[in-house]
Design a protein that fits this description.
This protein is α+β, with helices and mostly antiparallel strands. It is built from six helices and ten strands. It is globular, with a radius of gyration of 18 Å.
Length: 216
């Protein structure tokens, strides 16, 4: 009799959804807990069919590729892994427990945070943008709602769905980038890597240490 535990790829059932953290045009972001490690993460659950219908396959591919390329960039959100099922794509991110820059600003009179705090966060955003542009990437949707406050109170820039490369030749269009009501499932083979892709992310402790070093 085989007593070895069954092995399988990551699935949505490996996580317990704790709350809805946000709603987007193509899916929902959940705060969730990994049942195996008990770690809290954020999971963006994207509707595959909707992406195919509105011609956003290329954008989904670029977002995953860019997140992998900027994995060591200070103040960028950390992608831990991706996976998929028949209906959805899943991006598993580090958890940022302190909300957005927008929600932080709203805590102060007239939504104006103190000058020293504004200077602190502006400097971090500047470092992020400098590194991103040096890597040849444009975010194209930077706003307070897309800037989270991480566990060590440093900024974490999110939502690279509209990002593009400065070199337009790298923004390769996909066959299904034209809106269609009859997109084939096999198109997702072009996106690649969603079946079970560990983003090679560092541990949560290493994340916090990297944030502290970046902020020094």
């Amino acid at each position: 009799m085989n007593n070895q535990p069954a092995t399988h790829g990551t699935t949505w059932d490996d996580y317990s959804a704790l709350a809805i953290a946000g709603e987007g045009a193509y899916g929902t972001v959940y705060t969730a807990r990994c049942k195996q490690s008990n770690q809290t993460v954020a999971i963006k659950r994207v509707d595959q069919g909707l992406l195919l219908r509105v011609g956003k396959v290329g954008a989904a591919h670029r977002e995953k590729q860019i997140l992998a390329e900027i994995a060591e960039l200070p103040f960028a959100i950390r992608l831990k892994k991706t996976f998929k099922d028949d209906d959805h794509l899943y991006y598993v991110f580090e958890h940022c427990p302190h909300g957005t820059l927008a929600s932080l600003s709203a805590e102060f009179p007239a939504q104006r945070m103190p000058l020293d705090m504004a200077t602190y966060y502006t400097a971090q955003i500047g470092v992020f943008l400098s590194g991103l542009h040096a890597a040849g990437i444009l975010h194209r949707d930077l706003k307070p709602e897309n800037i989270l406050i991480g566990s060590s109170k440093h900024v974490k820039v999110i939502d690279f769905g509209d990002s593009k490369y400065i070199d337009d030749e790298k923004n390769i269009p996909f066959q299904s980038d034209e809106p269609s009501d009859e997109a084939e499932e096999e198109t997702w083979a072009e996106v690649g890597g969603y079946a079970e892709a560990d983003a090679g992310r560092m541990s949560d402790d290493e994340d916090e240490e990297e944030e502290k070093n970046a902020g020094d």
